[in-house]
Write a structure and sequence with these properties.
alpha/beta; TIM Barrel; nine-stranded parallel sheet; 10 helices; 13% strand; globular
Length: 276
């Protein structure tokens, strides 16, 4: 059966913490390989991230903390790695991260590959390191080739696997995997899957992240207006068909961006026959 992993973001309120705990219990029916928890810009939610990762580990599920290096020093990274070790965290999603508004400089790490190399230098093979991949190109990259080289550099620095930005074009994913393998980066590349549950949200996410929504999908979504049931049914068809093609083409797993909701990820996995 195709492995599934899940991504959550750290809640900002006590009510959100309680709600996310209930969502996780529903999604554990998928027997996730691991659950990752995101950071805010500049690591702004790192306390909430750490608490959520610890809660997932306490529930008996492997957890990965996002770890951004923008604005970080070598000492601050070492302190965080020690805290991860003490908490029993063995997985890290290593990212450059976004500069928060008004922030001055990069710190001692300019690229995610710098962070990965430093983690390997400091801790050897203690951590399983995932990195980000962009089948349709990172929005800040100068060219697709530059972006591909940046990804390969992260793999050579010591990454174990990659998780992609969400996308709706399977050809872009397969081409990215083929091209990165030709350059010697042969770690698993797990496609990131974003459920479609409302039109405005998915279009906003895509426009801000550089992910392309094919015109036919965008027009269909817009045509539904406020018909939530039709949007969800259409979204389930589109995303399930994408996942079926990815699995048939050899994708090593699926990483579901849950948005801290259970219904859509469960529906997708049920459609794919991935529920226990």
């Amino acid at each position: 059966m195709t492995p599934v992993s899940l991504e959550f973001f750290p809640p900002k309120t006590p009510e959100g913490v309680t709600k996310l705990a209930a969502v996780r219990q529903q999604l554990y029916a998928l027997k996730p390989q691991f659950c990752s928890v995101t950071y805010g810009a500049g690591g702004s939610t790192q306390d909430g991230t750490f608490a959520a990762v610890q809660a997932i580990l306490a529930e008996g599920v492997e957890a990965a903390s996002h770890f951004t290096c923008i604005g970080a020093s070598r000492d601050s990274v070492l302190q965080k790695l020690d805290a991860f070790k003490a908490a029993g965290i063995r997985r890290i999603v290593a990212l450059r991260g976004d500069l928060p508004s008004g922030y001055g400089g990069f710190g001692e790490f300019r690229y995610a590959s710098d962070l990965i190399g430093f983690i390997r230098e400091a801790t050897g093979e203690h951590f399983h390191i995932e990195v980000a991949a962009y089948p349709e190109m990172h929005p800040q990259a100068r060219s697709p080739q530059d972006d591909l080289v940046a990804y390969v550099t992260k793999v050579r620095a010591g990454a174990n696997a990659a998780i992609t930005q969400f996308f709706f074009n399977a050809d872009a994913y397969f081409r990215f995997v083929d091209e990165s393998r030709r350059l010697g980066a042969d770690v698993p590349v797990v496609p990131g899957i974003m459920p479609i549950t409302n039109s405005a949200g998915i279009i906003r996410f895509a426009d801000s992240s550089g992910a392309e929504i094919p015109r036919w999908i965008r027009l269909r979504l817009q045509s539904f207006g406020d018909d939530s049931a039709s949007i969800k049914a259409f979204g389930l068809d589109v995303v399930s068909a994408l996942c079926e093609r990815l699995i048939a083409g050899g994708a090593p797993g699926l990483h579901l961006y849950t948005m801290n909701q259970a219904a859509a990820p469960l529906a997708i996995c049920e459609r794919l026959g991935l529920t226990a």
